[in-house]
């Protein structure tokens, strides 16, 4: 708890610094921007920072996870609560300038910045409350929280929610696109565990969204919700735990020179030994070690953070990358030819490439038609990622992985994962949303008929 309080103080200080800077910018008059917009945004309580090439602060506040793509917003609005979000949406509509929500800034294509220049970015970093209700076993989580902090706070109350592992990913964008990790086979996706949401819509009103109120939106937001329908400020999640049942989770990583499998077993040591016996006998490992850990210790270990501080207060690791995702469905598997194509690519690619296999099944594959995450028949999800060191290699490495993607998709199911968003994906509408796409378009028309909330791969109005 002490750590959290210290963090609050740091955030408050940052906010004061940002506010001061805003005033300086206005006074220096360096920035050209629509006058009615700055007047309107001056009513926002949180910091509002305008684009200014001479201001290093503005640039430093842009979350730069993937430096392959870069966009410059007109203004960064750091909302502190629902009211700020409502005001910002109204200002955007009034000034006819696009507004884009950003939570953790980890979109592979920088869609948290809109995927284009000169938009209003509504950053939710300070909408970061977490209220845990131990009786109902639910947690109300502000969209601006990063996964590391969510895990830490829930852990202190003996709970967790299943989601991805990278501590700096934002719960906001992550859960709206699905959100899977080591705990999903047992407990489902992050979006499966959302029971209600508050969303600021296109008119700046707050909508309560759950399985009864605005069910159509509840369906759309849980899987296709990132950036298309409105700004989700808080979500209430079903928590799981504190006693963990059995359940295996695996991730396999493969590159030119190595193959590694990282596993996790949710349950007591003796059950883990029994469950893993067949697997260990078949793979004949050089060494085997079973390390009993609490849930939070496993997050620290698997996310490869050197200590707990960096889980709670994660750093971004900017790099140049491009990724593609594929699903292999139950009963299908990869053919020998597909494996050869993949291995040849990993061996011969000129840029550094890595294939990760995330095991699906279990609770992830349970589908009750209440979410827009359709990839429920998958045996595993494959992510192929290319990384490089300098801007000069952008085109070469992007083209290389795009070419491979076109070939490899012939060997896998037709689907791709919307949280691993890919601007160059063909027929992304069907690959991300399958047969429900038209339904999502109809819901979009109802809630955002003028397409205020948009980015290059958002749900369109028609
Ligand atoms: C290093 C890294 C590790 C990852 N690990 C995993 C993993 O283990 N499992 C997994 O499933 N995915 C993983 N991802 C993918 C990740 O889930 C997506 O990139 C996700 O969209 C990031 O959410 P964000 O809030 O951080 O990003 P942002 O860039 O802020 O947002 C992503 C999209 O959602 C929209 N959005 C953001 N917040 C809101 C909101 N509050 N309301 C409405 N729309 C919103 C944005 O406009 C944007 O279109 C990883 C990504 C990275 C970069």
Task: Offer a quick outline of the entry.
This protein has 462 residues and is of the alpha+beta class.
Word description of this protein:
By secondary structure, the chain is an alpha+beta fold. The chain has four domains: 2-123, Uridine Diphospho-n-acetylenolpyruvylglucosamine Reductase, domain 3; 130-242 and 438-447, Uridine Diphospho-n-acetylenolpyruvylglucosamine Reductase, domain 3, CATH 3.30.465.10; 248-312; 320-434, Vanillyl-alcohol Oxidase, Chain A, domain 3 (3-Layer(aba) Sandwich), CATH 3.40.462. Helix content is 34%, strand content 19%. The protein has 15 helices and 14 strands. It has helices at 2-28, 35-41, 56-60, 82-95, 147-156, 171-176, 184-187, 215-224, 269-283, 295-302, 308-312, 336-348, 394-408, 428-433, 437-447, and strands spanning 48-50, 75-78, 99-102, 120-123, 130-133, 138-142, 194-200, 206-210, 231-238, 248-254, 259-265, 320-329, 352-359, 378-388. The radius of gyration is 22 Å and the shape is globular. The chain starts with a helix and ends in a 15-residue tail after the last helix. The structure holds flavin-adenine dinucleotide. The site of flavin-adenine dinucleotide (FAD) has 36 residues, from β3, α6 and β9. Flavin-adenine dinucleotide binds next to β3, α6 and β9.
